[in-house]
Amino acid sequence: MRKPLISGNWKMNLNHFEALTLVEKLAYQLTKDVFERVDVAVHPPFTDLRTVQTVIASDSLEIQLGAQHCHWEATGAYTGEISPAFLAKLDVKLVICGHSERRELFGETDEMVNHKVKAIIAHDMTPIMCVGETLEEREAGQTETRVLDQVRAGLDGLKREQVGQMVLAYEPIWAIGTGRTATADDAQAVCAAIRGAVVEGWGAPAGESIRIQYGGSVKAANAAELIAMPDIDGALVGGASIDAEEFARLVAFAAEA
Ligand code: PGA
76 alpha carbon to ligand 1 midpoint, in Å? Predict the structure, then answer.
């Protein structure tokens, strides 16, 4: 049984004071029994990580700490970049890589994503590797080809047991931050195809245990329907994750799904 993972991707929102307030509100609203059924993670901006780590540790919260991005090298002359080793030292458990905003706005390629996935695993953290098609690709009937190409390229060279412990996030680009969501049936079909590609490339046990999230305008109102789908194992949530009440409601619905 794959335990659903609900990840809050805060993107470039909230300074470290605001981050502290949000995590404290969340901790207050998320009940203990919710964590038995779903894993919950927050991915604050880099400058907030230490603050959030301290709250999680001092209050023994079950919320997991995540980052939004990292470089693949551990140290060196990479001005402005963040080492996966530094994230691991801050008790970061999960790192998003290949988010469509990184791919589109900052030129991240499949090859770079593949380097990052390997580096994140090498530092004992879990990658959340994002894939997704543009609206043009969807309308041209290329959704599956595009998404499966990204999956195969991003996972290239990984061992079966490494892939089995990862998280993938299917995020149709046209659904991110737009209020438009893929229907649960559409999202399920793509997630099933992704799982099929993992089984084909890395074996049935890896395909069975890898968690596949859906992302793109997930809210409390649509989370349960998506997560109830057999191949959707959680959600990567942007906008709705920086509102404590909405995110707590979303997590509670996901726990019931
Ligand atoms: P959204 O973002 O929930 O605001 O659509 C999702 C994401 O980009 O991860």
Answer: 32
User: Parallel, antiparallel, or unpaired for β 234-237 and 64-67?
Assistant: unpaired
Q: Does ligand 1 come within 6 angstroms of the Cβ of 234?
A: no
Q: How far apart are CA 7 and CA 89, in angstroms?
A: 20
CATH number at residue 72: 3.20.20.70
The CA distance from 209 to 221, in Å, is 27
| Pocket-testing residue among 5, 10, 171, ligand 1, by greatest number of atoms within 8 A of Cβ | 171
pLDDT tens digits, 164-220 = 999 999 999 999 888 888 899 999 999 999 999 999 999 999 999 999 999 999 999
Mean pLDDT of 96-112: 97
Identify whether 208 is a catalytic site residue: no
Helix 143-154, helix 184-202: angle, nearest 10: 40
**How many domains, the chain?**
1
Please give the sequence-ordered ranges of beta strands (E in DSSP) within 37-193, or none if there are none. Answer: 39-43, 64-67, 94-97, 126-131, 167-170
Specify the residue for token string 């993992």: 198
| AA identity, residue 83 | S
CA angle 148, 69, 51 (to 5 degrees): 145
Distance CA(148)–CA(249), nearest Å, equals: 32
Residue 109, helix vs strand vs coil:
coil
Instruction: Give the per-residue pLDDT at 86.
Output: 98
Tell me how long the chain is. 257
Give strand ranges (E) for 77-132. Answer: 94-97, 126-131
Print the domain residue range for 58: 5-256
What's the rounded Cα separation, in Å, for the pair 41 and 62? 9
